[in-house]
Design goal:
By secondary structure, the protein is α+β, with helices and mostly antiparallel strands. The chain has helices at residues 18-30, 69-79, 87-91, 99-109, 115-124, 126-132, 139-145, 165-175, 227-245, 267-274, and strands at 32-34, 42-53, 149-151, 157-159, 183-185, 201-209, 212-223, 249-263, 283-286, 301-304. The protein is built from ten helices and ten strands. The radius of gyration is 20 Å and the shape is globular.
Length: 318
């Protein structure tokens, strides 16, 4: 393994992004090497925490590589619709979820279609999208339409109304801010085997103190090189949106990881990123306050003072 820069001697330690870089370095140098579901292999640690202050528009947007925050934002807005088909994402050229249905399509049909052509066909052909673009009841479905079942006198169950967890959390924050039940949960045990990918960022809990909205996210599985930069932005974005909707100031965002890992084939990305130092303080401006948490659009978000270093790419493990 090639050696990487040691960050502990740096004199510029106040930038919050050092938390991310130090975690990456710790995993790469000390993580347990494991065989994983994808077969690629990882170095992994269990139990990690990062904390970010969101006051004054601050966001955990990495500067040591370019993070495509608009893509992550489009995904978050898509989650809030409850949609489970990639067609709308592909229509916006967001390919975050395309690899999973593409892999299924190739495996079941033997057609080695390119991702570009597959995505284009998803957009142009509604029947094809309905057959091959479905992901199952992933994040958004659980967030805004968690299924319920009502017990009947004859011992059977009838499907009941879905639960919109996001709407309920917004209302509970408005009406009962001291509650310890401000939770959005994605881990629906009964439906995990129907999902293209069980939720990684699975549990969000919100907490109000001194007029500020804090958020803790527990992530059961985390790809630190490719996934975590998006996860940090997206969760902080959701926190900012909910804070605006509940007339609270954004407080602290706390991220907690279970199996926190780097893929073995991400070594070049890791070593390049660890050779860089963070700089700058990007801020998020939300330009309007819509009537509902579900009414934001991509044009409502502006990022200022973001001058990242160049993008770093690595293969995604499906």
């Amino acid at each position: 393994m090639a050696s990487v820069q040691t960050h502990s001697d740096s004199t510029a330690r106040k930038h919050p992004e050092w938390q991310y870089l130090d975690l990456m370095q710790h995993i790469w140098e000390s993580g347990s090497e494991r065989v994983d579901r994808t077969g690629v292999g990882t170095r992994s640690v269990f139990g990690a925490m990062l904390r970010f202050d969101l006051a004054d528009g601050q966001m955990p947007l990495l500067t040591t590589k370019r993070v495509y925050w608009k893509t992550a934002t489009r995904e978050m807005l898509w989650f809030l619709t409850g949609d489970t088909n990639i067609r709308e994402l592909c229509r916006q050229n967001v390919q975050i979820w395309t690899d999973w249905p593409l892999d299924t399509y190739r495996r079941e049909t033997g057609d080695e279609i390119s991702r570009e052509d597959f995505s284009a066909k998803i957009v142009s052909d509604a029947a094809f999208a309905e057959r091959w673009g479905e992901l199952g009841p992933v994040y958004g479905k659980q967030w805004v339409d968690w299924p319920t079942y009502q017990y009947q006198a004859d011992g059977s169950y009838r499907k009941g109304p879905g639960i919109n967890q996001v709407a309920e959390v917004v209302e509970s924050l408005r009406n009962n801010p001291g509650s310890r039940r401000h939770i959005i949960e994605g881990w629906n045990v009964a439906q995990l085997d129907q999902m293209a990918l069980p939720p990684c960022h699975k549990t969000y809990q919100f907490h109000v103190a001194d007029g500020k909205l804090n958020c803790a996210l527990y992530q059961r599985s985390c790809d630190v090189a490719l996934g975590l930069p998006f996860n940090l932005w997206s969760a902080a974005l959701l926190q900012r949106m909910i804070a605006q909707q509940t007339n609270l100031q954004p407080g602290e965002f706390v991220w907690m990881g279970g199996d926190t890992h780097l893929y073995l084939n991400h070594g070049e990305l890791v070593e390049e990123q660890l050779a860089r130092e963070p700089d700058g303080a990007p801020k998020l401006v939300i330009t309007r306050c819509p009537d509902s948490i579900f009414d934001y659009t991509i044009d409502d978000f502006v990022v200022e003072d973001y001058a990242p270093q160049s993008a770093l790419k690595a293969p995604i493990a499906v």
